[in-house]
């Protein structure tokens, strides 16, 4: 099952100022394509190359439908993790770890990224390369760049695809991938391929669709580029006491393990993995699963913006590295999609920035929930319940 991956591209604003981004989207399709070709030439592409590339581009309404449809992220962490992490995926990951043992050793030596981290992304993004997406990549990028929801992300990626085309590494007629324009076994956008693509098998090309060494080495380099710190952990399961200051949980408060331990937090097995600033993550409140997230955990958000996806990918990476199955606990029932939307509307009315009213418990909604729980004297663990909804 392909999950939407949106790689963080913080540098895009410097490429296209905000007003230019908005002016470049929407409008007549042919005019939009002319503008793309002009921008490509301004970036150094040959005029005939840019014209050949844009000449065959078509809008894909299925791409827009996929962009609006992300209901899988309405699942809670336990349900989401159980859906994505099957016994077959565990066994296949262990088998591939042995098959590409030398490649994973090279990645850890050069980029500091453990094999479990890359195996988890490989599994979730394309089921270890089995399904890499069947959307025409050029059309997908053009459609999303023309759409005015996120042109600042997709227009530069479309221009990067033209650069790959000029380099001979991209065929706009035949290259396929995910609906959001990612390509290959670990799903990378064109600009990321240009900046972080690695010829892992030594054949002189970076082929992320057909070469596991290329895909894995490129993924490792990109994670290093995004800030991965060699030799440090990313996630550790813990147990929490029956009572503590739950407002300390979440992504806004970092404490050292000794400070967490003083509040009653304990590793579920073994010892603390590092003496680093860390967050206490309670994806389903203080009665559910609990994790300590070390600084490397934040790099996951540079790869994908979904809290549930990020936590599940990080957890699966620990499982592939030998950690036990997490304790689901006994969390209070969560909200339905409609209830979550009603909650988001109430939170927005109180001045909280929850983003889109989409029924998804993302980072913005979690922060708002925690603030309102604290105000109302409820356990401030960022897990929305019907009690909170009714109190608001």
Automatic annotation (TrEMBL):
One of its GO terms (biological process) is peptidoglycan catabolic process. It comes from the Bacteria. Keywords: Signal. InterPro entries: Lysozyme-like_dom_sf, MltB-like, MltB_2, Peptidoglycan-bd-like, PGBD-like_sf, PGBDSf, SLT_2. NCBIfam families: MltB_2. This is Lytic murein transglycosylase. One of its GO terms (molecular function) is peptidoglycan lytic transglycosylase activity. Residues 336-391 form the Peptidoglycan binding-like domain.
């Amino acid at each position: 099952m392909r999950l939407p991956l949106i790689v963080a591209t913080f540098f895009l604003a410097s490429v296209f100022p905000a007003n230019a981004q908005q002016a470049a989207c929407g409008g007549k399709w042919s005019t939009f394509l002319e503008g793309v070709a002009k921008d490509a030439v301004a970036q150094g592409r040959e005029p005939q190359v840019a014209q050949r590339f844009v000449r065959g581009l078509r809008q894909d309404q299925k791409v827009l439908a996929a962009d609006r449809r992300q209901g899988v992220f309405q699942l809670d962490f336990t349900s989401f993790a159980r859906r994505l992490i099957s016994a077959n995926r565990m066994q296949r990951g262990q088998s591939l770890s042995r098959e590409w043992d030398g490649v994973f050793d090279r990645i850890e030596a050069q980029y500091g990224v453990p094999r479990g981290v890359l195996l988890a992304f490989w599994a979730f993004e394309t089921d270890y390369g089995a399904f890499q997406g069947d959307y025409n990549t050029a059309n997908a990028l053009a459609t999303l760049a023309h759409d005015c929801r996120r042109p600042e992300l997709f227009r530069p990626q479309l221009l990067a695809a033209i650069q790959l085309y000029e380099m001979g590494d991209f065929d706009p007629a035949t290259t396929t991938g995910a609906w959001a324009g990612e390509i290959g076994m670990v799903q990378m956008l064109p600009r990321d391929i240009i900046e972080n693509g690695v010829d892992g098998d030594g054949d002189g090309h970076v082929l992320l669709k057909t070469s596991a060494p290329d895909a894995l080495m490129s993924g490792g380099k990109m994670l290093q580029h995004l800030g991965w710190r060699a030799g440090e952990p990313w996630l550790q399961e813990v147990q929490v006491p029956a009572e503590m200051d739950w407002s300390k949980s979440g992504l806004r408060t970092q404490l050292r393990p000794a400070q967490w331990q003083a509040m009653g937090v304990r590793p579920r097995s073994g010892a603390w993995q590092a003496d680093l600033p860390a967050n206490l993550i309670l994806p389903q409140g203080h009665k559910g699963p609990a994790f300590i997230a070390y600084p490397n955990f934040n790099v996951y958000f540079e790869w994908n913006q979904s809290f549930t996806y990020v936590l599940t990918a990080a957890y699966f990476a620990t499982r592939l590295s030998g950690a036990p199955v997490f304790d689901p606990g006994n969390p209070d029932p969560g909200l339905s999609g409609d209830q979550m939307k009603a909650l988001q509307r109430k939170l927005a009315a109180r001045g909280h920035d929850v983003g889109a009213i989409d029924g998804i418990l993302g980072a913005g909604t979690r922060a708002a929930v925690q603030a309102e729980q604290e105000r109302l004297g409820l356990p401030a663990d960022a897990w929305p319940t019907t009690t909170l909804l009714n109190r608001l």
